[in-house]
């Protein structure tokens, strides 16, 4: 069992005298447990156990020596690994730092120590750092502490990282839809491993039908002594493929840039008018039952870029305006606000059912929205330009599936993690008010019992 406790100390900026001290204890979320909770389908699909263990261990320092400071109390639930929407990160720290970011503290290497049964970690915040009211803190990865959660972008910090950080061509899991290849002049879109061991693809065949392909590995118990299995390649011989069609009265056009997979694993598709005005049509497809479960029209009382990237998320439409911005539009078609000063350049992806992300400014940045606010950050250092975070029944947060698209019908899946996860939740019994008159030291002790 891992136990943790925090100590927050405030010091007078002139005299250096300690003014206040706060001690609290935490709960440990399932973030670390999930990083090792692999199942048979993931391992059968070509993941090297020794490689994963080598890259995920030791947990300290890479995956535990960062800290996130929150303005609100966080529900103490072990499943709260991604921060809840609406919460604000008012400070963060990972490694060494001497820059001007007003939220970012610095790791105190001299006072940090490894003990026989755990670690003591220390971070310092100067008078100009993390000046706010702090109600909760969480341990996170070093990269997540450097990055913060939905905080302003800073060069050299990343929202996500690949675990296999070697050459991009190092293939962990390869798969390709062979049956869909019989269709020509269509763009195949991989939507995720929505059920354990079943990879799902969708495409619009220009015939008023959404085509769904499910690809799964062979049942190991059915393999003969001469069968090979494990990797899905461009010509899979030992996997099952099933093709389904969902009929409608019009095309699922611009499918790649006009759908998300919501928290219920439904495909939510948006059809925009051919011109800059008219109505948007939202069709929600249950990819498990292969049925349309909702179909509605939203009259647009705004001017939009036709055939641009769009998403319908938390009953709001996100679409590029004719002025080159991202607009948020309500479900009656009325303008709410501009959430970015530049348009989206690729598809939207929904993570955790609570966050909408998409590439920004020539794929170098990342737009992220939680339904309350939007920020621009940096995508990640995995050499994969598109967001491409996909649902995977074989992975749990903070682990994610990253997809490198090599052609329209072949993909390579990599394993990564969202860097600013919550490994612990440490709600403070008394709020801490940090201001420019104080420096702050945060000590976090983790013990293995």
What would the keywords be for this entry?
9-stranded mixed β-sheet; 6-stranded antiparallel β-sheet; 4 helices; mainly beta; 449 residues
Summarize this entry quickly.
The protein has 449 residues and is mainly β.
Please, could you describe this protein's structure?
The chain has 449 residues and is mostly beta strands. It has 4 helices and 32 strands. The protein has helices spanning 31-34, 40-44, 49-56, 142-147; strands at 2-12, 18-25, 27-28, 66-70, 89-93, 106-107, 113-115, 118-125, 133-140, 160-162, 173-175, 189-195, 198-204, 209-217, 239-247, 259-261, 266-271, 278-286, 291-300, 310-313, 316-320, 326-330, 335-340, 349-351, 355-360, 365-369, 374-378, 389-392, 399-407, 410-418, 424-433, 438-448. Strands 10, 11, 12, 13, 14, 15, 28, 29 and 30 form a 9-stranded mixed β-sheet that branches. Strands 1, 2, 6, 7, 8 and 32 form a 6-stranded antiparallel β-sheet that branches. The longest helix has 8 residues, at 49-56.
